[in-house]
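Regression test attached.
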Amino acid sequence: MNLIRRLYRGETSFDFVGARRLWLTISAALVLVSLLALIVFGLNLSLDFRGGVAVEASNPAGASVADMRAALAPLGLDEAKIQELAGGADIRVQVGALTPSESEAFQKAVAEATGTTISEISLNEVGPTFGAQITNRALTALIVFLAAVVLFISWRLEWKMAVAGIAALFHDLVITFGIYALTRFEVTPATVIGVLTILGYSLYDTVVVFDKVKENVEELHTDRMTITELVNRSMNQVLMRSINTSLTSLLPVGSLLFVGSFLLGAQTLRDFALALFVGIAAGTYSSIAVASPILASWKEHEEEWARVRRRRDRGRGSRSETPASPTVTKQAPTRKSGATPRPPKKGRKR
Amino acid sequence: MSRRITTLIIVLLFAYGGVAAIVGSHSTPKLGLDLKGGTSVILRAPEGTDPDVLTKAVEIMRGRIEAFGVQEPEIAISGNNSVLVQLPGVTDRARALQAIGQTGVLSFRPVFTSSFQSPIFDTTTATTAATTTTTPGDTTSTSADTTTTEATTTTTSLPEGVDPGTGFTITDSPELLRAWVPEYDSNGSLTAGYEIGTLCNDGTTLATCQEGSDGNPTNGTPDPMTGSDITEALANFSQTTGQWQVDLKLNDDGARKFQELTRAAAQFPTGDPERQIAIVLDGKIISAPQVASTVDANIGIAGGSAVITLGAGDNQQAAAQDLAVVLRYGSLPVSFEQDQVQSVSATLGSDSLRSGLIAGLAGLILVAIYMLLYYRSLGAVTIVGLSVFGSLMLIVLGLLSRTAGLTLTLAGVTGIVVSVGITADSYIVFYERIKEELHRGRTMKAAVDEGFSRAFHTIITADTVSILAAVLLWLLAVGPVKGFALTLGIATFLDILVAYFFTRNAVSAIAHSGLGEGGRFSIRAAAGGVQEAS
């Protein structure tokens, strides 16, 4: 049976947890690079966080960046950041904080240079403390949200699952911001929204996997399966769902990203979609490669599961007879293919 | 007809009928300013501002904006201490911002004449008692019947054509006015340099000097003192006089101007209208105290502090407090900082809306194709389910827009696009469960029933996390994040409803029909063609 067919029928048996060294090394490297990027480059915060004035105007006069710079020079706005949008059909100018009268003069200059009127110009004027406020609000929301989620997952599933889920979440957040730091993309309030959504997605994904783990623990808890095997089995069972969900989530977000990048007037969409795209991808990866291995390793140390393992270790010689679990029929063919879900320790000893 | 078919029909009728009703009654959600163009301003009051004070400020702003002629302004308190002002399609941005953002222009001006003295005006209600009291030193206390906020004007006593609110639109009776105010020229318009105002509480009309373009009076009278010259204004009960008063402290500039003003006013005898100082806020005279009789006409009131005496009694206490607030902040009871001004041109707005819709549609179509290819007949259920979901979303947003004034912003639209992913996931979780149950060898019907009850458990758990995120975001965030959280929360909630009432019944109906087992389009085929265990 080829891989696609097995995937399609949900009969894969990848040893996800067994490869945790590899996963966690990759993740640790990604997180480290992200943190380094954040420290070295920092985030390219948009005007909303620094304060300032940005205008966006259509450009019937066809003013170039140089024309605009010349038009703004008499106002002493040499530091202006000027960008052509949509292939020169639009122009965007960004300057630091201005007084109301300076701001009006600035808008007037841009309107004249582009051949438009002030009322046709889109404006975003932000006070210097606004960004700090948004950030504070977002951080408050984040902390309260995390506390609530830990409580909820602890109640509905298990507290160790909550901790593993949060660990995966931080992994996703750090990597997302790391990519923003590396690529120098602007972090806007729309990005913040995107990131807040990632919180939901990342946990959602993890919850689906853990829900399955919990169910399997209740149903298949015999003395013959270690927790690592159970987690592996659960992940294989929900693998197709994870792939499908990621695809169906990424399709609309990808179309937002595409439309936002290529169509006029959708910069907000693009800012938002980029954060989501990275976040969802990282979220799917981390529920498989971070949350689940952490949970499995952690629970291996619990007395109950350690006992199962010791018993398994003793009965190593008669391993071929062990799959007397209710899953015999499903697992038998795949075992022969060599991808047996088995405890990694044992694997290394061989 | 089985119960599930009945439920299905009810759900479909409700969803599609609801959409028809919403569209038919033009109740589709109102669009936010970022989608239709307009200006939105976030103003922030100092931390810990009393909510009542904020409410009052919002009322005043609303009044100002309406006077400015803006259609459907939306002014709302947002968060603890912010006010969100939304002005659709405002073209004169600068003036509109000035109208709401500023605390108001306050000035102290000389008075030239008063209807109280004029026989033309039958101001029966005028009660200005020219009782003057003296306090030691250079400080004067003046008495006038002044209050600020309750602007009930006795219109009956005003000449025809005088706007009781502003006192400015005098066009009908130039003769009357010329007789009263010599500064009116023969054309019936006010000579440059003067303006007329009505003292709100009793209809007394005053003429004061007007500022020229340089901010100074145009007719050679002393400079008016402005609100920014006042450093402190406190309502007090004086033990010495037994009356309520407002204590003023002025800066150096203000002290000089105030001394000039009072010296000029003190040239006139006690009781003369020109012995008054008019306190003018945004062109409206809110108070006009007399300069006390003890003030030396050669010196005026010097020293940078003054007392305005209002009188005894409870209503005078309120009047003193109101006046103190106006003197401190202008007409807004608290000073606001302008946090963000965002203005979107109408073309950019419609571009954004179009882009959002294109992205949303494209995303939906891609998801639909994928689901159809992967899950066959179950994919078809998903497509109908997404249309039911979309219909319900439109109904809820339309109703909220109508009843709670919800507006759909770009962030809200993105929330909906994202929720497509979450909804699609619910189907996937369910279908994968069915496949799994089939692989375990269950019958088709058992697989569907068992699959749903298991999947629904997962869906509820996962959706709760999403709803939790949405609710917290909605409670804690400001501005666009709120709109996003709202649509995301509604969508997630609807997802649960659709899964329970629609998806379960529709899938069950298919399982009971020929599409369950046979053919390439069947559920069995979607599950990889495994056979029932015997």
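Expected vs. actual: identical. Chain A has two domains: 9-45+130-307, 52-126.
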